[in-house]
Amino acid sequence: MTTEPSGEAAPLPVGPSARLPAWVPWVAPFAVYMVLHGLLPQDVLPPVINQLIRIVVVGAVLLLVSRPILDFRVRFPVQTILVGVAIFALWIGPDLLWPGYRDSFLFSNGVVGRPESSFPAEAREGPIALGLRAARAALLIPIVEELFWRGWLPRWAINPNFAKVPLGTFTPFIFVVTAVLFASEHGSWWDVGLLAGLAYNWWMLRTKSLGDCILAHAVTNGCLAAYVISQGRWEYW
């Protein structure tokens, strides 16, 4: 059974973006981000240049292609911030409670990779590279991922003419499958990625709000960035 929300419909593209297929503004930033992630390892170029390329290219796609559909209005600011903090706690909790937890074969193998940092050691001492990396995590990635994982994919899976499907619409099957796919994006952290995906899906279901989900994701990633830098837990990056 489909859960139909009563909130506002997703914004429709206007201007040049209106001439593109309807899915492009929702999918293009994530697609470009993933292409860069695959083609531009973090140790290929000087760290500052590497981070700038990622931010500028993906940011340009957001501004030029996705801007008409972006909606940063937050309906439940306090609750959304608390959700973001709670998901951050879920993310780091297993490793704090059970040291060596992620050394298990489940999280270190040829399929999911290994819990190792891809952020170059020399970049960890540079405030500019660190700042850019943190900004990408807390400001850019939440927009890119929420457009794709909560804004487009569940609705498209219900109806290829997804613009007719309100934000926050899920079937039980799609609710779980999108969370599993979200988890697969996170490599050795697939387990907490799954919990996070379920939590973000649940928050979209509750709020019917892209802005709330972006803020929750930004809070999670911002807390994680602060934790990585302050505690030297580079494996999360």
Task: Please summarize what this structure is.
The protein has helices at 24-39, 47-66, 77-97, 127-158, 172-184, 190-207, 210-231. The protein is mainly alpha-helical and 237 residues long. The model is unreliable at 1-7 (pLDDT under 50).
Task: Walk me through the structure.
The protein is globular and about 45 Å long. It has one domain. Helix 2 runs parallel beside helix 4. The chain has 237 residues and is mostly helical. The chain is built from seven helices and no strands.
Rg (C-alpha, Å): 18 Å
Share of helix, binned: 55-70%
What is the count of β-strands? 0
Question: How confident is the prediction overall: mean pLDDT?
Answer: 91
Low-confidence parts:
1-7
Total domain modules: 1
Features:
mainly alpha; 237 residues
SSE blueprint:
Elements: H1 24-39, H2 47-66, H3 77-97, H4 127-158, H5 172-184, H6 190-207, H7 210-231
